[in-house]
Amino acid sequence: MFLLSNVVLTAFCSALLIPQAEARRAIEQRTSSIEAQTDQYHNLSSKADQIKGAMLASIRTSWEQGTAAGAILELDNPEYSVFADSPFVNNGETPVDALRLALSAAARQTSDGRLSQNISDGLDGAALDGASSGSVTLLGKADYWRNATDRQLNFLLNGVPKTTAGAISMRIDSKQYWDDGVYMMPPFLAAYGAVTYNQTLIQMAITDEGVWATGNAWAALGMIRVWSTILKTPYAWSMQVQTNDLRLWVKEILDGTFAAINNDNLIPDYIQGGATFGDASSSAALASVAYRAAVMDSNTFGGNYTDAASRLANAVLSSVDDLGVISPYVNPLSWQEIGILSTEGQAFALMLLSAWRDWLKAVNPDFQS
Ligand SMILES: *[C@@H]1O[C@H](CO)[C@@H](O)[C@H](O)[C@H]1NC(C)=O
Ligand SMILES: *[C@@H]1O[C@H](CO)[C@@H](O)[C@H](O)[C@H]1NC(C)=O
Ligand SMILES: *[C@@H]1O[C@H](CO)[C@@H](O)[C@H](O)[C@H]1NC(C)=O
Ligand SMILES: *[C@@H]1O[C@H](CO)[C@@H](O)[C@H](O)[C@H]1NC(C)=O
Ligand SMILES: *[C@@H]1O[C@H](CO)[C@@H](O)[C@H](O)[C@H]1NC(C)=O
Description:
This protein is mostly helical. Helix content is 57%, strand content 2%. A two-stranded antiparallel sheet has the order 1-2. Helix 9 packs parallel to helix 12, helix 12 runs parallel beside helix 14 and helix 14 packs parallel to helix 16. The site of one 2-acetamido-2-deoxy-beta-D-glucopyranose has 4 residues, from helix 2.
């Protein structure tokens, strides 16, 4: 595995003017890191079913429904995820598990078009959260799915309040931005644009500066999906300025948050001051982003990203308890507290497993998952 012939190595070194021994050492280090990570992945990936079980057992809000559906799609039907080579063609096998979650989101769509909103009193004020299921309803082939997806798109384009700068607000009732909006809406707009060959929609996914101006795990998750979506469309070439921006923003977020990894191998709940505990939830999300980024652009996202991601992955996935719950994580309803159960945290752990698997596949031709 990974043996470079001397001829290739010599040519490579003289082209870059670096000493052969140093280059050989770098390759050996990288090889041993990949081998170690392959073992770690195989030890920890057996927890996927437990983590998924805890996620599916949780009572979910609209944004959690969409996040859970996305996580299951990436884990069980990666051929349909935006990280696949050609996700927007009919890939054959129906992504049943993800569609089950999307079916519930469509059955609970409110009359204004928001997916997964008709729960309790049907008056959830979230404007964008329902759109998180849109990328998965988009995969349904029948009229029922198409209609539900179109109503959700129509709501985003015509039903959501805009600020004076034109940015879409996260809440129906107040023009306020929530960081997680970057995961909820832009990936859906981009995927819809990719499927219907509509570059205007893809462009809309990027230019909503108000929502993009945040730096956290949700933002990075959203950005990397929009970036990967664009690369799979005929517009990849003409949108290099946009994909380059996305690359830089993802890098900024990873550089900032990975520098804060603590001795517990987790990213703390607050990056700048006031940190009280390592947060397995954002650690899982950001580690998944690092693995995805490393596959998409290994020059920018080299071994220092994937090595840090593996420390996070080991810490997060080793924490799984008897019920399949990872810990500790932020209570999604009260950010200062440690939560008991977080659907998004469980979903991020699954996203991490899929991203880790797909990176290992990319760097190790012999890898078997
Ligand atoms: C994987 O698990 C086995 C058995 O528990 C253990 O011996 C081995 O050290 C683990 N490997 C890694 C890389 O964690
Ligand atoms: C929620 O669903 C109920 C039952 O189908 C329906 O009567 C009601 O109009 C729906 N609410 C909204 C806001 O769409
Ligand atoms: C989908 O929408 C079209 C156009 O509004 C309508 O004719 C059709 O009956 C709808 N189909 C379903 C299954 O809702
Ligand atoms: C792209 O989508 C927008 C919003 O739905 C629509 O107004 C526009 O006509 C579409 N463009 C094309 C080329 O289909
Ligand atoms: C990784 O290394 C590159 C190049 O030295 C540097 O720009 C980047 O900040 C580093 N990032 C992390 C997360 O260590």
